[in-house]
Write a structure and sequence with these properties.
Low-confidence stretches: 165-182
Shape: globular
Oligomer: single chain
Helix content: 25-40%
Structural class: alpha+beta
Largest sheet: 4 strands, antiparallel
Mean pLDDT: 83
Radius of gyration: 16 Å
Number of strands: 10
Length: about 180
Amino acid sequence: MQIIAIDKKRYVAGAHWQTVDGGKNKPKQMLAQARKLNSMLDSRCNAVFLGRRQYGLVKVPTKSIPALPSLASSIRESGIDDALLKFCLSEEGNLWYVVAVSGNNILPDGDSIFKDEAEADELIGEITSSYEFDLVENYQDAVASFEFLEKNVTPHLKLKALNATALGLQVGLASAVLVLIV
């Protein structure tokens, strides 16, 4: 998980996305499925993005969960669909972001952060062996990356605590489920 600042707005990148079958799901169902998957993961997450048909799990390294939007869902909601995009997010070339959207869904590994471009390219190779995209772009420098992102991204899907205890609060499930479905 990485927090990325774009045009004075902060976004979270690096969630593990899952698509839920059956069309639109209720927040309570989505949260229950996210918790179930999280219980099976080696690296437990403490925050979640809940969408209409997808959820994204994130491990936030702090006790408080910042209500920041997902960069991947913000890119998807900007009208970019069936796209595989790679961005350089630092002048030094040591922070790379890969986002993959297919069929209006973020792919499971399609919201990934890397410190090495070769690792980002390896993921791109794996993704392109399974999916075809209408748009494939490779932004090699930070200036071009941020120019594209500033023009094409508006905040979408805010990060929420996965469990009430992740916020240090003693609240019931009903409070944790009050999530806006967008």
